[in-house]
Design goal:
Layout: H1 3-14, E1 18-22, H2 40-51, E2 57-60, H3 62-66, H4 71-84, E3 91-96, H5 100-113, E4 118-121, H6 131-134, E5 140-146, H7 153-156, H8 169-178, E6 187-191, H9 196-205, E7 211-213, H10 223-230, E8 232-234, E9 237-240, E10 242-246, H11 248-251, H12 259-278
Parallel strand pairs: 1-2, 1-10, 3-4, 4-5, 5-6, 6-7, 7-10
Antiparallel strand pairs: 8-9
Length: 281
């Protein structure tokens, strides 16, 4: 299956739009492991095992592993995901953005070293910074479009006087992802849950590409508003997939030895809120 098929299969099998983000911070680990970076795999694997039947995707953020020299633990973790949740795709949150041979190396890192199903990218350097990833047929690439951080306005909301209609930059990126850049149907877009109006606008400009939507949970994004703005279905079948990410609210639902059980409860609560919003007028 290609990445889009994987998403739809996981959504259907797990009844879920939830992406569980894996941003391990040893300083926030349960007391028995607190501050111990050698336990990153153990912590994340416990979260994966607890939420495998609730997730539409898993999203490890590479910086949280690399900062602690835990890349080998990340490789091991993704291999564990393949065993524990074989039908749940893995999105490597790397936000790479470089050109030519360097982008080719980053693509090797994401898809060959780590074996991810998709990767997040910055499109700022243009299509030639994206093209190397699209050579991996069946893999996905999510382009940063309208991000959840307040500083996103600095560039993403600027008008492009040189482009017909003078769209905002994020609108232009959405059109490129829906159209000329999406050579093999592999592209998606990252749009923050803290901006539901912009999610709706991006969906109007890119009606079929998957949206990765971070910001639900600790960042304050409204889960129901997110679904209403971005998810479209016909006769109960998803046409426009959305992948709604929650990280810290799930990972650190408890600081005790029951952290995995607490993570499961929070993931189930979020999954159910998202599911209910799909069918609420």
């Amino acid at each position: 299956m290609n990445f889009l098929d994987q998403l739809r299969t996981a959504e259907r099998q797990n009844g879920s739009l939830l992406c569980v983000g894996l941003d391990p911070e040893p300083a926030k680990f349960p007391e028995q492991w607190r501050g111990d970076a050698s336990r990153i795999f153990d912590f994340c694997a416990a979260i994966v095992d607890a939420t495998a039947d609730l997730a539409m995707a898993f999203k490890p953020q590479i910086a949280y592993f690399a900062a602690h020299r835990a890349e080998a633990q990340l490789e091991r973790l993704i291999a564990h995901m393949r065993s524990a949740a074989p039908n749940v795709p893995v999105i490597l949150d790397a936000k790479r953005g470089d050109i030519g041979s360097t982008a080719e190396q980053y693509a090797i890192e994401a898809f060959e070293r780590y074996g991810a199903d998709a990767v997040t990218l910055s499109p700022f350097m243009g299509f030639d910074s994206v093209a190397p990833y699209l050579k991996y047929h069946g893999k996905g690439a999510f382009l940063l479009c309208r991000t959840s951080n307040p500083g996103g306005d600095d560039l993403q909301s600027q008008r492009l006087a040189s482009v017909e209609g003078q769209p905002l930059l994020y609108e232009h990126i959405a059109r490129l992802a829906q159209g000329p850049w999406n050579l093999n149907g592999q592209l998606g877009l990252v749009v923050g849950a803290t901006y539901p109006a912009e999610i709706e606008r991006v969906r109007a400009l890119a009606p079929t590409v998957p949206l990765l939507i971070p910001g639900v949970g600790a960042q304050g994004g409204d889960a129901a508003a997110t679904v209403k703005a971005g998810w479209h279905a016909v006769d109960g079948e998803t046409v426009s997939p959305i992948v709604v990410n929650s990280s810290r609210a799930i990972l650190y639902a408890s600081s005790g030895s029951d952290f995995a059980d607490a993570a499961r409860r929070e993931a189930q609560r979020t999954r159910d809120v998202l599911h209910a919003a799909c069918y609420t007028p």
